[in-house]
Write a sequence for this structure.
């Protein structure tokens, strides 16, 4: 991961991704108690993070196009508006964000409904 420049930071992406899953602990427990499948819980957590990831990637690409002229003197062998580079970075960051949201979603799929409802 360090080769890609995606080294773990404090707070890490996994920590940020686990916050909504933990905050909705009771809701997830109730959904499971009412018969929700594990796939439904995974979709609940993943939809939120997919939406946030795509919004962040869109904002990032927009800002990168805006700053492209300023950083063009630092780039060698790559045009400032190279679509392949933008696509590769966007797909890479989206993959890391999805992996970071899958780990807490997998933990949320194992919630025991009785424990979640008694916890207060």
């Amino acid at each position: 991961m360090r080769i890609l420049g995606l080294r773990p930071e404090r707070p890490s992406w996994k920590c940020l991704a686990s916050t909504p899953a933990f905050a909705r602990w009771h809701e997830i427990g109730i959904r499971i108690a009412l018969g929700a499948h594990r796939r439904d819980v995974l979709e609940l957590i993943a939809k939120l993070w997919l939406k946030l990831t795509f919004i962040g990637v869109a904002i990032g690409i927009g800002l990168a196009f805006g700053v492209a002229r300023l950083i063009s003197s630092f780039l060698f062998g790559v045009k400032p508006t190279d679509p392949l580079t933008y696509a590769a970075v966007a797909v890479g960051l989206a993959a890391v964000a999805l992996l970071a949201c899958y780990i807490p979603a997998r933990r949320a799929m194992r919630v025991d409904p009785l424990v979640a409802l008694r916890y207060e």
